[in-house]
Amino acid sequence: MKALLQKHKQYLLTGVSFVIPFIACGGILIALALTYAFHFHLLNDKGAPDPMQGPWLVQNMFTIGVAAFTLFPAVLAGFISYGMAGKPGLVPGFIGGFIAGTPQLVEGKNISAGFLGALVIGLVAGHVVNWLKKIPVATIFRPIMPVIVIPILSALIVGFLMFALNLPIAKVFLQLNHFLENMQHGSQIVLAMILGAMIAFDMGGPVNKTAFFFGVAMIQQQNYFIMGACAAAICTPPIGLGLATLLNRKRWTEEQRESGLAALGMGMVGITEGAIPFAAGDPLRVIPAIMFGSMVASTIAMLGGVGDHAPHGGPIVLPVVDKPLMYIVAIIAGVLVTAITINLIKTLTDKPAVAATK
Question: Has this prediction a pTM greater than 0.70?
Fold first, then answer.
């Protein structure tokens, strides 16, 4: 069992190594465009920075960044499958990941399986291809199996499976949204903790988006405290993980340390996806750590009466935040908790022989 888990972790790391440039490219370009829009007060009707109101260069920079982000679920799933099954795994992995990242319209809301869906379907695609490879065929058909037959059959199996799962997944997240609506009449601390955990859980995926759009809906009702809690939680995972790579460099590979620098930049402008390269390669340790940090950040923000008037997060929205000092305190606390927690977990669980090289 231990050897099996180690093999699957390696498959995930294969996908991560290919997807990091997409996330870094998309995140940094979007961050630059958002920064420009915020600096020049280019806001949409909801008060969020809107780069599409900027000059041609900024508009296209934003569009290219969005394109890189749109591709990353397909790339992640495709290369996870490739790590498991070789070239025949690329087609079903890319297709399954693309479908996982494609929003489904349910009750007026666009919801997709996102990053976690891509992670799972990449593994499924690899297993499906490996299973198809074992089917005995006549010698005459063997040359076309990896080029034609296996890609087509595996794409159909994985594609239909992902289509079948997308709608139930979307309905689950709609129920989650109704749950949050009911929670706002209860304990605000409990609500803040739930929002923080959801924001960090899948880093821009459907769980994250459910919490985020709940905060956006509350802005329209002049309740800015929900978005304040979300805004503090949004930037905590990437900044916290980036800080962790600086505090204890020997526990992180050179590739992870480079991702950490990119994550710091993305976190400053509220792009939670900067944490994905870390979570995709080591979900069982990274996701609990970032959830803990974001829960701390969101709870402190809620207790401190932080209100965010813009549907966005991170330090970039500081000019439109009520109680800005408490907002900064909340972010710093969440970031420190994230960095210390993940480094402590890695110190306690990494074997000296497999610890990251300096």
Answer: yes
The full set of domain ranges for the chain reads: 1-171, 184-358
Quote the distance between the C-alpha of residue 282 and its chain's center. 13
Q: For the CA atoms of 207, 212, 214, 219, what is the dihedral angle to 10 degrees?
A: 180
DSSP 3-state assignment of 351?
coil
Quote the pLDDT of residue 169.
75
324 token code pair? 């800005």
Joined tokens for residue 163? 């289509």
Whole-number pLDDT of residue 181: 77
- Cα–Cα distance measured from residue 32 to residue 1, given in angstroms and rounded to the nearest whole number: 45
3-class DSSP assignment, residue 187: coil
Q: Are 244 and 338 in contact (CB under 8 A)?
A: yes
Which long-range contacts (C-beta less than 8 Å, at least 24 apart) are formed by 137-140? Answer: none
Low-confidence ranges of the chain (pLDDT < 50): 353-358
Q: Is 222 helix (H, G, I), strand (E, B) or coil?
A: coil
Give dist(CA 236, CA 270) in Å, integer: 9
Rounded Cα distance between 32 and 107, Å, is 33
DSSP-H helix ranges across the chain: 2-39, 56-85, 90-100, 114-133, 150-183, 188-201, 206-220, 225-247, 254-268, 276-281, 283-303, 324-349
Q: So what's the pLDDT on residue 315?
A: 92
Do 232 and 335 meet the contact criterion of CB atoms below 8 Å apart?
no
Q: Which of 27, 40, 18, 7 is nearest to 260 (CA)?
A: 27
Query: Is residue 140 classed exposed, middle or buried when 0-12, 13-18 and 19+ CB atoms within 10 A define those classes?
Result: exposed
Count Cα neighbours of 113 within 13 Å in the Cβ-side half-sphere: 24
pLDDT at 102: 83
**What pLDDT is recorded for position 354?**
43
DSSP state string for 132-147: HHTS---GGGGGGIII
